[in-house]
Design goal:
Layout lengths: L2 H17 L12 H13 L26 H12 L40 E2 L9 E2 L61 H12 L6 H5 L3 H8 L11 H14 L6 H6 L8 H10 L19 E2 L17 H4 L2 H5 L8 E2 L21 H10 L23 H14 L24 H7 L3
Antiparallel strand pairs: 1-2, 3-4
């Protein structure tokens, strides 16, 4: 009997043991938490192996050796990430100073976009959690900065060595050997700077999303002092640059960790942090459902790419369509047909604030995702069945078991205080994450 099947059987036995009753006076029910802890010990050596660092524990947060995390960098990056005053390179004057990195990655949507297809320049409105952002009617579709794929979250970015669904950003790790695809004149060229994925994406993203590090703006605000504090060993003539701004943003992004989620509290020793049903869901997650095989480590992400046959962005509401390279996922970057239709494993924290799942946003609830994995039936018929991951097979979970896993994902992995990663206000005095007229009304920002 192979190990995977043995683990699945074991988890069923454990779950049945946890949820059963007995009239035998000699029967001693072992707490579900003990089963869960032992399972994590068996898998990782200790449950503490899954603990996320606190956001000021810079020595414990995975970082790029070429971009050490410092408090001054994090402070600068936090402001720059949300600063609509960097929106100084729009296609249309209408959007000057109205968008930011946070337009598509904001706390109220788990640092993802609140809409199916994130919009930077050319968007307007916000709503409550970004759900009401829409195309500015003055814009032609081709002038928008709109995403051809779901905007991934920055949560747990510290645990990703390459970035984006296709992993195209990052000069080290699994991207070693892909140098021929770091195409000159494209954002992928940024890999030649030699940084890891978080840093590379942050640097490239400033250009891609029409944000500008303008010295006149920097020098007219307290940003100059913050750059000075963050990069004291860089000559002033080279200090106030896009590269350094990207490095500061990346340092900040690495600290955006959902370390106050109940599961994290339980891992740190609070035995009351998870209720019985959430614990059952965790036992299934790390057992019968085999979720941990892909969603691993403290970030519950993983650095592997899988073809699960999910749909790309499609439908009458999708703007500008999706190009072939994007549809091919990892293969669209590497050029290797064996990588076609494979996409990077996403992290799983704070999904309760998200309305679209999968790289194409084709699923709309956490339960939809668990059901999809449980049934193991592809929805995108354009993906050849031979390309599908061997792990994408029916899980044979009961409806009750699916519900337990959903409770674990939605509640136990939910940090309800992500607003601590937002600034109270910006040095520019601008509204954020957007500063267009409708967003300002929606957010009550003057």
């Amino acid at each position: 009997m192979n190990q995977s099947k043995l683990l699945s059987i074991l988890s069923v036995v454990l779950l049945a043991f946890v949820t059963s009753c007995s009239s035998d006076d000699n029967y001693v029910q072992i707490p579900a938490e003990s089963f869960l802890e032992q399972r994590l010990v068996d898998l990782y050596g200790a449950k503490e192996a899954l603990v996320l660092p606190y956001s000021n524990e810079f020595n414990l947060i995975p970082s790029d050796v070429n971009n050490p995390i410092t408090e001054a960098k994090v402070t600068l990056g936090k402001f720059l990430f949300h600063e609509t005053g960097l929106a100084k390179n729009p296609n249309m004057e209408e959007s000057m100073n109205t968008y930011s990195c946070a337009s598509c990655h904001h706390a109220s949507a788990g640092f993802q976009s609140g809409i199916k297809q994130g919009i930077g320049e050319g968007g307007e409105g916000f709503g409550i959690f970004g759900e009401s952002r829409h195309k500015n009617a003055m814009y032609l579709d081709e002038d928008l900065d709109i995403q051809p794929i779901r905007s991934p979250t920055i949560l747990n970015a510290a645990y990703q060595e390459v970035m984006l669904w296709n992993g195209q950003f990052g000069a080290s790790g699994i991207n070693q050997g892909t140098e021929a695809n770091w195409t000159t004149g494209t954002p992928k060229e940024t890999n030649n700077l030699g940084f890891e994925g978080v840093e590379t994406q942050a640097i490239a993203g400033l250009n891609v999303h029409r944000l500008l590090i303008d010295e006149d703006f920097i020098f007219s605000t307290t940003y100059k002092d913050m750059f000075d504090a963050a990069f004291p060993n860089v000559a002033p003539a080279e200090r106030y640059t896009r590269v350094n701004a990207g490095l500061a943003i990346a340092a900040y992004e690495r600290t955006v960790l959902p370390n106050q989620a109940p599961f994290q509290q339980w891992l740190r020793g609070d035995e009351s942090a998870l209720n019985e049903d959430e614990t059952k869901g965790a036992i299934l997650f790390y057992g019968k459902a085999n979720c941990y095989a892909c969603h691993s480590g403290p970030g519950l992400n993983g650095m592997d790419f899988y073809a699960l046959g999910m749909k790309d962005l499609e439908g009458p509401d999708v703007i500008n369509g999706v190009d072939d390279a994007t549809k091919r996922g990892r293969g669209g970057f590497t050029g290797n047909s064996e990588d076609d239709y494979k996409f990077k494993t996403p992290q799983l924290y704070n999904l309760k604030d998200v309305s679209f799942f999968g790289h194409g946003g084709s699923l709309t609830t956490v339960k939809d995702v668990v059901d999809y994995k449980n049934e193991g039936i592809q929805e995108n018929m354009n993906v050849p069945s031979a390309a599908l991951s061997p792990l994408f097979t029916p899980l044979n979970l009961t409806e009750e078991e699916v519900d337990y896993i959903v409770l674990f994902l939605e509640n136990a992995l939910y940090d309800n205080n992500l607003q601590r990663y937002e600034p109270l206000d910006l040095p520019s005095g601008n509204c954020f994450p957007n500063a267009d007229e409708q967003s300002s009304i929606d957010m009550g920002c003057d």
